[in-house]
Specification:
heterodimer; A: Butyryl-Coa Dehydrogenase, subunit A, domain 1; Butyryl-CoA Dehydrogenase, subunit A, domain 3; 3 domains; seven-stranded mixed β-sheet; 11 helices; B: mainly alpha; Non-ribosomal Peptide Synthetase Peptidyl Carrier Protein, Chain A; acyl-CoA dehydrogenase activity (chain A); FAD (chain A)
């Protein structure tokens, strides 16, 4: 099964501008894309997914990223949920949950907490056996900045297993008693992706909602999930740059100042050259990371950090350049370059901020060079 | 299976794993050392290790096999690899 980007374009249409200003994507659009397998394209065909390899999945993510970073963010979290189930779920959990995630059900993922962004030692959420003979598990904690929770049917919650130190991931229905979702209003970027505070107050789930029975190394749970997220964000940033490059080039080619298209003005031409350079760099660093995953290289998780770091910083710079070229013509909320300008900044903050990414890269250098 | 045969296989496996950990983390763990409590396995390295084991020994480590107990020490990982290799040989034969 291959993904038809024409069908995606038809569904998305000129929606992203309005989604940005209203802060909401129509949920039926998300469910349709989910049912097409677009939101988690790497799910193998035997589980009902498109079975895209990392390159095809990456290009698909960039394609959607060029249209709308909010929609691409929903892809990212659904993809992280699917990657977590694929890696940590047992046979039955994989069949059940991956089937759901490729047939229109929507997922989000909950890592960050008030006391723990990138610092796993601060994790306070607990997934523990109910100890009342039911075999159920209880999930409690507070999660912050949860992308897409307002659309989601299920939340994949990451936390300590019992009192730790091992971890667990549990699939929690958003309508389960004890789940509270509070949307954060007026975010700077990725407005229609939405983000929320999620409070879990002794939420009871059946034992089979705990992936693989729990008890995995906490760093392994987080890095597996975040690595998928970093690849997805990196490709999304390549998409942001493609959207900006297309908009800036079209504008510079047609808009005239001083009797010639502005592209003929050397300082504007340099902006186009820099945008093109950024888009190429972002794409190549994503491809490099995809190659490392494809061949099972041990440094693949670091390559994902590198890709995210490089692509996000270039997207931030490139989006500012595109706004500079379009000037007043792109200076309205909803415009592709205005969205890119705000959305790209968010990409420097999530799945490991630029600074955290640099610390990881420096650690890698110190350990291996 | 004699003790000598079993011992030879796990000895060489433990040596390989120790060499990999030493090369990648800069510290040489003993076979029984708890790699998590002594901080040998960092956040990034945990996944690198799984990817390495899968690639190097042609096994798939998923689901309940990812329990922390299977990665706690060089000895535990060696036992995991041997068990999964045995399982895959068995499934091929069957």
């Amino acid at each position: 099964m291959s993904i038809d980007t024409g069908a995606i374009d038809a569904l998305v249409g000129d929606g992203p501008a309005a989604w940005d200003t209203t802060g909401l994507i129509p949920v039926d659009v998300l469910r349709k894309l989910g049912g097409m397998g677009v939101l988690c394209a790497e799910v193998p065909a035997r589980f009902g997914g498109p079975g895209a390899d990392v390159f095809a999945s990456g290009e698909l993510t960039a394609h959607v990223g060029a249209l709308c970073s909010s929609l691409r963010s929903i892809m990212t979290v659904q993809g992280i949920a699917a990657a977590t189930v694929l890696r940590f779920g047992d046979r039955e959990q994989r069949r059940d949950y991956l089937g759901q995630l490729t047939s229109g059900r929507l997922a989000c993922v909950a890592f960050s907490e008030p006391g723990a962004g990138s610092d796993l030692a601060g994790i306070a959420t607990r997934i523990r056996p109910a100890d009342d003979g039911t075999g159920d598990a209880l999930v409690s904690g507070e999660k912050m900045w949860i992308t897409g929770a307002v659309y989601a049917d299920v939340i994949v919650v990451y936390g300590l297993f019992g009192d730790g130190p091992s971890g667990a991931a549990a699939v929690v229905p958003t309508d389960a008693p004890g789940v509270r979702i509070e949307q954060v209003k007026d975010p700077l970027g990725c407005r229609a992706a939405t983000h929320s505070r999620v409070v879990l107050d002794d939420v009871r789930v059946p034992a089979r909602a705990v992936l693989g029975g729990g008890g995995q190394p906490l760093p392994l749970l987080f890095t597996t999930a975040l690595s998928y997220g970093r690849m997805s964000v990196a490709w999304g940033c390549a998409g942001i740059l493609r959207g900006c490059l297309a908009a800036a080039t079209a504008d510079a080619r047609t808009r005239e100042q001083g009797g010639s298209p502005i592209a003929e003005h050397q300082l504007v031409a340099r902006h186009l050259a820099e945008l093109y350079t950024s888009e190429r760099i972002a794409t190549q660093v994503c491809r490099h990371a995809a190659e490392q995953w494809e061949r099972g290289a041990a440094d693949a998780p670091v390559a994902a950090v590198l890709a995210k770091q490089v692509a996000a910083t270039h997207a931030t710079r490139g989006a500012a350049t595109a706004v500079q070229v379009l000037a007043s013509r792109g200076f309205t909320d909803g415009h592709v370059v205005a969205r890119a300008y705000r959305d790209a900044k968010a990409m420097e903050l999530i799945e490991g901020s630029t600074e955290i990414s640099q610390l990881i890269l420096a650690r890698h250098v110190l350990d291996t060079v | 299976m004699t003790a000598a045969q079993g011992g030879t296989g796990s000895d060489s496996l433990e040596k390989e794993l120790t060499a990999f950990l030493t090369e990648r983390t800069g510290t040489e763990p003993s076979a029984e050392q708890d790699l998590f409590s002594t901080g040998v396995i960092s956040s990034m390295f945990a996944l690198q290790l799984v990817v390495h084991l899968e690639d190097e020994y042609d096994i798939e480590i998923v689901g309940p096999e990812l329990s922390m107990d299977n990665f706690r020490s060089v000895r535990a990982m060696s036992a995991l690899v041997q068990r999964l290799q045995g399982a895959e040989d068995g499934s091929r034969a069957g």
